[in-house]
Automatic annotation (TrEMBL):
<dbReference type="InterPro" id="IPR029068">
    <property type="entry name" value="Glyas_Bleomycin-R_OHBP_Dase"/>
</dbReference>
<dbReference type="InterPro" id="IPR004360">
    <property type="entry name" value="Glyas_Fos-R_dOase_dom"/>
</dbReference>
<dbReference type="Pfam" id="PF00903">
    <property type="entry name" value="Glyoxalase"/>
</dbReference>
<dbReference type="InterPro" id="IPR037523">
    <property type="entry name" value="VOC_core"/>
</dbReference>
<protein>
    <submittedName>
        <fullName>Glyoxalase</fullName>
    </submittedName>
</protein>
<feature type="domain" description="VOC">
    <location>
        <begin position="150"/>
        <end position="266"/>
    </location>
</feature>
Length: 308
């Protein structure tokens, strides 16, 4: 099944104004009707939590109502429909989205992808032995756009990660790496990204979304976008830093959507020849390094305050 990756996430929220401002400040572009998109057209849809058109809310406090994946073609939609119809209701809406509910209660949708193909350079670096940027081409600037390019991945809290993984295996997701006793990083067959979905074992009352993220053009864009976000008053939760599994740079922020929201960049790519690794969960295996944000400082002034 050629599932390419996440197309959009749907949230049912209490405070539409706060969530709208958050996504705009994060860098997504407004499309109207509560829809926001990255440069490739993937994005986030906001609805008020009482909107009757939303899928039924989970029994927990999670505000995520639906996860919609993009697929390559109609044949993939038909394959998904045939597989899912074996043991659960499946519908296809007027919007062309095929819908069902997974074994953990997450509402899922699948549609032929409407992502736009991006023709943008990634971040270039210069190093002895490899001049990556052209002569006189700046590596960074104060006015660099640093905009989200593509919806990268979503992380679920689930009460049974083994059962959840088995469900997504039916859709062609494969494990790329695993935290022992926690859960797998999963990649659908239509992408080489290290993961589109990460499952974290938690008690049932925590079931829901932990975070979602968009790919940026490189680590400087993660740092730039994150710094601008902090300067607008949003609270950093974790980062910036660089993960071990996936190798992606990261910076997480608190949000009014009831989950964390991340900027990420430079994720590993894997194919069928990759052998999944396993690691014990913990700080030593979660990141190679971690920075702590502080306000700008220059030599000659007062010493910078100690990190909190």
């Amino acid at each position: 099944m050629k599932i390419i990756g996440l197309e959009y996430l749907v949230f049912g929220v209490d405070d539409l104004d706060a969530c709208t401002n958050y996504l705009l400040d994060y860098g997504l572009a407004p499309l109207g009707n509560g829809c926001f998109e990255a440069l490739d057209g993937s994005g986030v849809h906001l609805r008020h939590c009482d909107d009757p058109k939303l899928p039924v809310a989970m029994e927990t406090a999670s505000q995520l109502r639906e996860t919609v994946y993009g697929v390559a073609d109609e044949a993939t939609l038909q394959s998904i429909e045939a597989e899912m119809s074996r043991d659960r209701p499946v519908t296809r809406g007027d919007d062309g989205v095929l819908r069902c509910v997974d074994d953990m209660g997450f509402a899922l949708g699948f549609r032929i992808t409407q992502r736009r193909t991006l023709e943008l350079q990634s971040e270039r670096i210069n190093a002895p032995g490899d001049a990556g940027r052209s002569v006189n081409q700046l590596g960074a600037s104060k006015d660099m756009p640093a905009l989200p390019r593509s919806l990268s991945h979503v992380v679920y809290f689930v009460p049974d990660s083994v059962k959840a993984e088995a469900f997504y295996a039916r859709l062609g997701f494969v494990c790329t790496d695993r935290f022992v006793g926690v859960g797998p990083f999963l990649r659908p067959s239509g992408t080489l990204d290290h993961h589109t979905l990460f499952l974290i074992q938690t008690p049932p009352f925590m079931k829901g979304i932990e975070h979602f993220t968009f790919h940026m053009g490189g680590p400087s864009e993660v740092m730039t976008a994150g710094t601008r976000f902090v300067e607008k008053g949003y609270q950093s939760f974790w980062g910036p830093g660089r993960h071990q599994f996936g190798s992606n740079w990261f910076w997480y922020f608190n949000s009014p959507l009831g989950c964390h929201v991340e900027y990420d960049a430079d994720m590993d790519l894997h194919d069928e020849s990759w052998a999944a690794r396993e690691a014990i969960p913990g700080a030593d295996n979660s990141q190679y390094f971690l920075f702590s944000y502080r306000e700008k400082w220059a030599p000659g002034g007062q010493p910078p305050p100690p990190a909190q």
